[in-house]
Amino acid sequence: MTEPSVSLEALRQRIDTLDNDILRLISERAACAQEVAAIKAEHEPGGVFYRPEREAQVLRRVMELNRGPLDSEEMARLFREIMSACLALERPVKVAYLGPEGTFTQQASLKHFGESAISLPMAAIDEVFREVEAGAVNYGVVPVENSTEGVINHTLDSFMDSSLRICGEVVLRIHHHLLVGETTRRDKVSRIYSHPQSFAQCRKWLDAHFPHAERVPVSSNAEAARLVKTEWHSAAIAGDMAAKLYDLSKLAEKIEDRPDNSTRFLIIGNQDVPISGEDKTSLVVAMRNQPGALHDLLEPFHRHHIDMTRLETRPSRSGVWNYVFFIDFKGHREEPQVAAMLEEVKLRAAEVKVLGSYPVGVL
């Protein structure tokens, strides 16, 4: 009985020593961040403190070097929070996101910028764009597509009239839960609140388990959770953040119809992002309404071996052109092969707007 307790005590002492080392090294890193801030303030007044490409490179390196037992994504998340706290010593990052509090967009914002960023909820996507354009915040976070329901057209349309650039992306696995307050019983649920897209993503589950409950669409899942907090015999479809924020219980977990359900969010800002080594570029292209227009647009991508990852069509809002294409592809606009392809597309299109080149989402 004595030997295991001696071994356990030795392990605890080893952990204490390691914790001391970790504390010292994090403090050294934070001090380096302060020195970086001082140098930037002296030589680059008004310069950019947050560097998306640098952050992506650091996180990728952490994941490549990790040997366990923590998995690579968990290790990268730990480093994300360290980097977020260190950046806050230089200059806190202000981020606007599609609110209210408790939404998946807030979760995406925290995933990308960490807990030390200053996050501000906005009521609509165009408000997020306006806050960034006005300089009230450094960045914005908006949803752009869901793996089940497709693109969020309001976000795409906002880019048509905006000078903002895409600085990054976040892909968030979406898990929906059926949430209730402390006074509601499962057999008494007669009304379910949620965002229309969440209803669509959980349609089959709801048909099987609550076919007779009234489905009431609201502006966000967080709003659904807020309503349920004060009502009897009602439930909400929302995520973990909303459940925690409004202190709701999970009547059922992960009720989405597809287990791979995920949403992609874009980070919007005013800066061009340098090459990170694993990048993506987004374009909006207006084409004249003539035979072979789509072929003419796509042919340079094929010839230059550019991997297109998404192609969406939207009606033109100006009325000048009949339709526009939103295109995502692998590569950075500064890479020679990509630059050559873009020059060819510009010769064939009525108008080309590069929305941004940015690091592929790491986490």
UniProtKB/TrEMBL annotation:
InterPro entries for the chain: ACT-like_dom_sf (IPR045865), ACT_dom (IPR002912), Chor_mutase/pphenate_deHydtase (IPR008242), Chorismate_II_sf (IPR036263), CM_dom_sf (IPR036979), CM_II_prokaryot (IPR002701), G/b/e-P-prot_chorismate_mutase (IPR010957), Preph_deHydtase (IPR001086)
Gene3D superfamilies: 3.30.70.260, Chorismate mutase (1.20.59.10), Periplasmic binding protein-like II (3.40.190.10)
Functional pathway: Metabolic intermediate biosynthesis; prephenate biosynthesis; prephenate from chorismate: step 1/1; Amino-acid biosynthesis; L-phenylalanine biosynthesis; phenylpyruvate from prephenate: step 1/1
Superkingdom: Bacteria
CDD domains in UniProt: ACT_CM-PDT (cd04905), PBP2_PDT_1 (cd13630)
Residue ranges occupied by any ACT domain in the UniProt entry: 282-359
Record-annotated Prephenate dehydratase domain positions: 94-270
One example GO MF annotation: prephenate dehydratase activity
Enzyme Commission number(s) of this protein: 4.2.1.51, 5.4.99.5
UniProt name for this protein: Bifunctional chorismate mutase/prephenate dehydratase
Gene: pheA
